[in-house]
Specification:
It holds the Pfam family Methyltransf_25. With 208 residues, the protein is α/β, with parallel strands linked by helices. Helix content is 29%, strand content 30%. The chain is globular. The protein binds S-adenosylmethionine.
Length: 208
């Protein structure tokens, strides 16, 4: 089995375990960082069940939303129909290390693009930067560690700091402006109702 198939199977099983995995609400940082941008073309990488893509479409963005999991994408497309915004979202299945959507975008968002399977995250984020249009924004949100109580099953998994995320993008300094680079704490409620604290990191860059 190829590593792409291993990842696709992993994420399809992950989503198939419950009818709904995520909250159905858009990520707070996406809402905070994007609300004041003029809507244009958006790309959502690792869109999961589609809450961010649907929120973007509701704000007037034309959205391309990508995930490796056909189970997640099927669910997301149904949610978009229910919300009446399916005509504004193009759902695409990619293993982003292998293939990437065509086009250029005024916003590229990667919210918690992590995996317990092999993920060439730095290379994917470099591809993400390469499809940001002039004056467009790249927004990357990531965890800084596993939830409390969950041990790292793969010691190789590394959660990069904002500086490491930016260094990994390997961008020409004069072409990009750093708008946000920060670590922050966020309250989250787990599936079993337990409230926890997550430490996350935000990187927001604008192409000059
Ligand atoms: C932690 S979830 C985050 C989902 C969503 N962005 C959110 O914030 O709720 C990571 C998502 O990335 C997707 N993913 C993982 N590896 C991927 C890959 N190599 N290519 C495309 N999507 C991938 C998973 O299927 C999953 O939906």
């Amino acid at each position: 089995m190829t590593t792409e198939q291993v990842s696709e199977d992993y994420w399809n099983s992950f989503y198939a375990e419950h009818d709904q995995i995520w909250s159905g609400r858009p990520n707070v940082v996406l809402v905070d960082e994007v609300s004041d941008l003029a809507p244009g073309r958006a790309l959502d990488l690792g869109c999961g069940e589609g809450a961010d893509a649907i929120w973007l479409a509701q704000q007037g963005w034309t959205v391309t939303a990508v995930d490796i999991s056909s189970v997640a994408l099927g669910r997301a497309a149904q949610h978009a129909k229910d919300a009446g915004v399916d005509d504004r979202i193009d759902w695409q299945q990619h293993e982003l290390g292998q293939s990437f959507p065509d086009g250029e975008f005024d916003l590229v968002s990667a919210q918690f693009l992590h995996s317990k399977t092999e993920l060439s995250r730095d290379a994917i984020l470099r591809s993400a930067a390469s499809v940001v249009a002039q004056h467009g924004v790249l927004l990357i949100e990531g965890h800084m560690g596993f939830p409390p109580g969950e041990h790292n099953p793969h010691p190789d998994i590394h959660f990069p700091t904002p500086d490491e995320v930016i260094a990994g993008l390997d961008l020409p300094d004069d072409e990009w402006e750093t708008l946000v680079s920060r670590v922050h704490d966020r309250a989250q409620v787990m599936r079993d109702g337990q409230p926890i604290n997550r430490r996350d990191c935000t990187v927001k860059l604008r192409r000059r």
